[in-house]
Amino acid sequence: MKAGPVRESFLHSALADEPLARFDAWFAERGAAHPFRVRRLPFSELRQWRFEPGAGGLAHESGKFFQVRGLRVRTNHGPVREWDQPIINQPEIGILGIATRVVDGVRRFLMQAKMEPGNVNMLQLSPTVQATRSNYTRVHGGRRPQYLDLFTDRGASAILVDQLQSEQGARFLRKRNRNMIIDVKGEVEPHDDFHWLTLAQIHRLLRADNIVNMDARTVLACASVRADSSSLPAGDPSAFSVAGRRLEGFAKDLLLSLSNDEPGLHSMDDLVSWLSEMKSRAEMSIETVPLEELRGWRRTGDEIRHESGRHFSVIAVEVEAGSREVVSWTQPLLRHYSHGLAGFLAQKIGGRLHFLARASVEPGNFDVADVGPTVALAGSEDGSWETPGPPFLERFLAAPPAAIRYSAVQSEEGGRFYHFQNRYMIVEVPPSEVVPLPDDYVWMTLAQLDELTRFGMVNIEARNLLACLSLT
Amino acid sequence: MKAGPVRESFLHSALADEPLARFDAWFAERGAAHPFRVRRLPFSELRQWRFEPGAGGLAHESGKFFQVRGLRVRTNHGPVREWDQPIINQPEIGILGIATRVVDGVRRFLMQAKMEPGNVNMLQLSPTVQATRSNYTRVHGGRRPQYLDLFTDRGASAILVDQLQSEQGARFLRKRNRNMIIDVKGEVEPHDDFHWLTLAQIHRLLRADNIVNMDARTVLACASVRADSSSLPAGDPSAFSVAGRRLEGFAKDLLLSLSNDEPGLHSMDDLVSWLSEMKSRAEMSIETVPLEELRGWRRTGDEIRHESGRHFSVIAVEVEAGSREVVSWTQPLLRHYSHGLAGFLAQKIGGRLHFLARASVEPGNFDVADVGPTVALAGSEDGSWETPGPPFLERFLAAPPAAIRYSAVQSEEGGRFYHFQNRYMIVEVPPSEVVPLPDDYVWMTLAQLDELTRFGMVNIEARNLLACLSLT
């Protein structure tokens, strides 16, 4: 299938690296405009949240929002075969949506400055709309989110991207959101908390730590700039021009990897076969159990924590906000410790850039195994990594600076997680090096990762990394 | 992506319509060679099967094979919002595999003559291998299935197709099988129960009732003959030649619809969006309950049946066989009454053949909604259809003979179902007619159905119909 006008407009937007001075001023001003305070609470001071009897977990009395439940996991996969953990249950499909318009010949994305209680820096850049089903039905009595009608009223816009995508399978039980990008037909009424940005500008912001939030990144990961070979010059020169811009080095390699005219090292049929094998082989049985029966976890007055100091803990917070739908509320959050790490190894194989994917088996996965990045692991309270670490971990921890194509710290969803950050890295391996692979790893081109993403088979850690790839 | 040599070899095999005289003689001989007797039993005479306490259902004492469990369903989808039913639980991924080889320049498929207790005619044509995990581990003490090593030993063959595909979501709880087609590297040791056939020969057999079994059809549905436009003549003549054969009429339309160079009425992004909407909108909660608590179902000494006489019943049988892995066994089966119906409406839109898909929401679906055929409904004890019938039912029941592109009765899995047959139909609507569509219906090309099949999003009723499409 050829690249259509939508993908062309994404490509041009990804090359439109306009100045960010106006954005910077606006973002600083927004941060100052919104009073926002978060403080930890004992569980007993949570309002409308309570520990349900049995396996109901920590839940809101309306039955809405989400619950923190106890999960018992048994698997034949990986070094640990049986464990207990808390997990977030939120069995509804929300909308994460970005409204776009072509203005002055370039597609622009309407981004929102949004506070979330779990963000280390409070304010981050989010999609135009971040709406749970509770938002539509206004369970907490708040306002209907700004611009939601553009996504739910089909006359108002054309849909460019609309895919169901998962969240962290180690933290959420089968959670999926609808990731949407729309083209708005008419003018969009301005609002102080919103700002138009090109894809290239967003990519520039993604090079900094903790500005673009997780919900924005997962939607942007679906904004493929997939190219067809007819838009690329013949041969393999060291640089070529697209839309008046000269692309060279890694940016050129990225665009070639996004072309779907050549299959890459493996065909898509091979990759589907690999994933079938991974799904067939891994068995994972899960059952919900009462939180107080979780083995290895201790509940104090204000925390449910693992006795090892690893993983995460469950805490309660009170939020006072001026810009949210309601002025004050309390809620549980999953607290994380030092940074985790998620990274892709990349390598030019047969002249074309490939990324090393791993079959990721997590208890909350919608299907058994998803396509994940080369490495993904959580931090611990004392900052140490698990021992022995997963394959290829050292290649990220000890990467030579010249091989690092991307490295920044990004926050995970601040509405559910407290200070959950991961360092995201892309590290390139020289083409000459032979990398021996365990059989749950496989090389893919970006076009293939993109195709698997479209069908909901790529996990959020891998999609986060895809969102950070920049052509400028 | 261009059609590779594998798809080319499938295309040529689909055009190689060789005589079937040798097959007919072999198949008749196999039917005579195998004594096979099935008789109904009271549940109390089942050996090693028993009604477990609680929600365990009717189960084998080994814990293997499958269980017939009680299911309680609540949904916001469709005319009936709440019901109980028995359902088959078999939470393991089996292999359905066909071995192929290119002999005399044409790819040939190794098919097996196989008896199943639920088949109306006992003997049908099955894949080379039909293996549950119980087969590998030989729970019932039988032999390892013939040729299984070709599929599990990766040195012995190259994998051409390897996809996880679902079974009936109204009868199985999240059941999936690995559908495989392999290219065998060396000679294949002959065995009396096996016969080599071209795709065209299999398609010819599919025009008759109840010869090619469900397991063979689901694998064949993955054997795409997807073409690229470079193999098709330019323009739109009334006929063209492929591999020395002149294609015209419906066969030509099929091949054009299989070309993935043009998107069709909707782009793949549009179709993914439609399916995202269907999955977001439908809610379906299921819980297993004890069989004796199923509302509307009555258990007698030899049957669990619905009081309406509709749907199906659970029975027990004893099997005595000469060709199976063991000589005699007992098991439960789901008994069906008169034929059900599954059909696609087809229409040329913009010169290209499209098929009318419906979002199918079933309690046992792995995901919420799959891509189903235009109509799919079960028969009843008295042969009547449900009233009111689903949209478009009348177009099949009252189809003018000149519009019927395919019509035959095929059996569903005879190892689980007793006399479960469906009439499969393709009915073509004139290009000039405007068909108003409810929003859970959408037109797709064959190339798009094929792509969605690859990622496990097309249900078994729709795949059965795809398997029956013939170019000869």
What percent strand of chain A?
Answer: 35-45%
CATH level-4 homologous superfamily of the largest domain in chain A: EvaA sugar 2,3-dehydratase subunit
Helix- and strand-based class of chain A? alpha+beta
Low-pLDDT parts of chain A are: none
What oligomeric state do the depicted chains represent?
homodimer
Specify Rg of chain A, calculated over alpha carbons: 22 Å
How many domains would you count in the coordinates of chain A? 3
CATH architecture of the largest domain in chain A: Alpha-Beta Complex
Total beta strand runs of chain A: 28
Average pLDDT confidence of chain A is 91
CATH fold field value of the largest domain in chain A:
Nucleoside Triphosphate Pyrophosphohydrolase
Give the CA-CA distance, first to last residue of chain A: 26 Å
**Biggest interchain interface, per-side counts:** A-B, 30 and 30 residues
Q: What is the CATH level 1 assignment of the largest domain in chain A?
A: Alpha Beta
* Helical run tally of chain A: 11
The description of the largest β-sheet of chain A is: 7 strands, mixed
Instruction: Identify the overall geometry of chain A.
Output: globular
Percent range for helical residues of chain A? 10-25%
